[in-house]
C-alpha cells in the first residue's frame, strides 16, 4: 500500500478528501492529516508518505514553502497541490519548487485519482532508476577495473560494450589520454614497505587528478599501480604526477618510488602499447635512490649496466668531492671510456649527471623544509653556498629561496 498525507487548513476539505474517495481500493492508505505546512512537514518526517496532497494558502507555513522544504530535506515523495487560487505566482512557485501537479478546487474526484496515480507512477520510476544507479555505482568500479586489466593485457574483447556502459553511467574513463604506472623501486632502502608505498602514491595521484577534474580509472596490482588519465596534455600529466610525488615525500615515506608516463593514446585500442611505454619509462630511471617521474621518450634509455652502476656510485657519494676518476676506478674502467659511455648512452657528460643528481636532492631537501640553504649546499657537495645558489639557479631558473617559496 502507498501512504498518503493530506495537508489543508480547512477541516471539511480534509474530511472530504478522506471520505469521498475509497483510497484503499487504489492501493493507498491515508496515514495522517495536518492544518498547516509545519504540521504536515513533521508528519511527513514521521510517516515517510509516498504522496502528499497539499493546499497553498495556509498559516505558519504555506504550500510553496512546504514544497521547498520537502525538496531541501530530500524526502522521497510526490506532492500534489490543491488550491482555490489560480494566480500565476502560486502555480509557478509550487511547480518550480518540485510539486508534481497543481489542481484547482473544487476538485473532480476522477481527476484527483488520475493525478495521484500518475504521481505515484513517476515516483516508482524514479525509485527504480535510483536503485539501479546505486547498484551500478557499487559494481562499476570492479567492472571498470576488469576492463582496464583486459586492455593492458591486450584483450580488447568486449571493450566497446563495457565502455558504453561505463560512459552511460558517468563513470570516468577517457577515450584519449595517457597511461601512468607507479612502482616502488626494487633497490629502495625500504623495500619491505613497497605495497604500502604503492598504495600511498596511488592515493596521492588520485587526489591530484580529482582536483584537476581529470577523468581517470586506476587499479592496484601486486607491485605497481596503473591509472588511465583522460588528459591529452602530457605536460599537465607530468605536473600532476610530480605534485603527487611531492605530497608522497612530504608524508615522510621512506620507500623510493618512480612514476612512468606513456605517450598519449588516441583511443582504448592503444592502451596496451601505452602500458608497455609507461612500464619501460618507470624502469629506465637514470637517477637511483630518489623519487622520480619519467615520461616515455623524454629521457634516454635503456641504460647500459656500467652507466647505471656509475649513477649508483654517484647516488651514494654525491655529497663528497666525487670525480670521474673515482667512479672509473670503482668500475675498473678508464676515465676516457666512462666519459665516452656517458656521452653516447646518456647524452650528458659525467659532470652534468653529477650536477643533475645533486640538484634533484637539493630540491627534495628544500621541499622538506628541514635545512637552511647553506646546510643543503653542504649536504649535496658544495662548500660555497653562493656557488651552490648560482648552480641551482642555472639548473632550475630559481634561487633556492625562491624554489622553497
Automatic annotation (TrEMBL):
SUPFAM superfamilies: CheY-like (SSF52172), Homeodomain-like (SSF46689). InterPro entries: CdaR_GGDEF, CheY-like_superfamily, Homeodomain-like_sf, HptR, HTH_AraC, HTH_AraC-typ_CS, Sig_transdc_resp-reg_receiver, Tscrpt_reg_AraC-type_HTH. Residues 308-405 form the HTH araC/xylS-type domain. Keywords: Cytoplasm, DNA-binding, Phosphoprotein, Transcription, Transcription regulation, Two-component regulatory system. Pfam families: GGDEF_2, HTH_18, Response_reg. It is found in: Cytoplasm. Residues 3-120 form the Response regulatory domain. Transmembrane segments: none annotated. The keyword Nucleus does not apply. Its main location: cytoplasm. PANTHER family: HISTIDINE KINASE-RELATED, TRANSCRIPTIONAL REGULATORY PROTEIN HPTR. This is Response regulator. It comes from Geochorda subterranea. The lineage of its organism: Bacteria, Bacillati, Bacillota, Limnochordia, Limnochordales.
Amino acid at each position: 500500500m502507498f501512504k498518503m498525507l493530506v495537508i489543508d487548513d480547512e477541516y471539511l476539505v480534509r474530511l472530504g478528501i478522506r471520505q469521498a474517495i475509497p483510497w484503499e481500493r487504489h492501493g493507498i492508505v491515508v496515514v495522517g492529516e495536518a492544518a498547516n505546512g509545519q504540521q504536515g512537514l513533521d508528519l511527513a518526517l514521521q510517516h515517510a508518505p509516498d504522496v502528499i496532497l497539499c493546499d497553498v494558502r495556509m498559516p505558519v507555513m504555506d504550500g510553496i514553502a512546504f514544497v521547498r522544504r520537502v525538496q531541501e530535506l530530500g524526502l522521497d515523495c510526490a506532492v500534489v497541490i490543491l488550491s482555490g487560487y489560480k494566480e500565476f505566482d502560486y502555480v509557478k512557485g509550487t511547480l518550480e519548487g518540485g510539486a508534481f501537479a497543481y489542481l484547482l478546487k473544487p476538485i473532480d474526484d476522477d481527476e484527483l485519482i488520475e493525478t495521484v496515480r500518475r504521481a505515484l507512477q513517476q515516483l516508482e520510476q524514479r525509485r527504480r532508476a535510483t536503485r539501479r544507479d546505486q547498484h551500478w555505482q557499487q559494481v562499476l568500479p570492479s567492472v571498470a577495473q576488469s576492463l582496464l586489466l583486459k586492455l593492458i593485457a591486450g584483450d580488447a574483447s568486449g571493450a566497446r560494450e563495457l565502455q558504453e556502459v561505463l560512459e552511460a553511467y558517468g563513470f570516468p574513463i577517457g577515450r584519449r589520454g595517457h597511461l601512468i604506472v607507479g612502482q616502488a623501486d626494487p633497490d629502495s632502502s625500504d623495500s619491505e614497505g613497497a605495497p604500502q608505498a604503492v598504495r600511498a602514491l596511488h592515493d596521492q595521484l588520485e587526489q591530484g587528478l580529482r582536483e584537476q577534474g581529470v577523468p581517470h580509472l586506476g587499479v592496484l596490482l601486486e607491485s605497481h599501480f596503473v591509472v588511465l588519465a583522460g588528459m591529452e596534455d602530457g605536460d599537465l600529466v607530468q605536473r600532476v604526477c610530480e605534485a603527487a610525488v611531492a605530497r608522497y615525500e612530504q608524508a615522510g615515506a621512506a620507500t623510493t618510488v618512480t612514476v612512468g608516463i606513456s605517450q598519449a593514446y588516441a583511443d582504448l585500442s592503444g592502451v596496451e602499447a601505452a602500458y608497455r611505454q609507461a612500464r619501460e619509462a618507470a624502469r629506465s630511471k637514470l637517477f637511483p635512490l630518489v623519487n622520480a617521474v619519467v615520461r616515455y621518450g623524454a629521457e634516454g634509455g635503456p641504460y647500459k649496466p656500467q652507466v647505471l652502476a656509475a649513477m649508483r656510485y654517484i647516488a651514494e657519494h654525491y655529497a663528497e668531492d666525487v670525480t670521474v676518476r673515482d667512479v672509473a676506478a670503482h668500475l675498473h674502467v678508464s676515465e676516457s671510456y666512462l666519459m665516452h659511455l656517458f656521452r653516447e648512452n646518456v647524452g650528458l657528460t659525467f659532470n652534468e649527471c653529477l650536477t643533475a643528481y645533486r640538484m634533484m636532492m637539493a630540491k627534495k631537501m628544500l621541499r622538506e623544509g628541514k635545512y637552511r640553504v647553506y646546510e643543503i649546499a653542504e649536504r649535496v657537495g658544495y662548500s660555497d653556498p653562493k656557488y651552490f645558489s648560482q648552480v641551482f639557479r642555472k639548473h632550475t631558473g630559481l634561487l633556492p629561496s625562491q624554489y622553497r617559496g
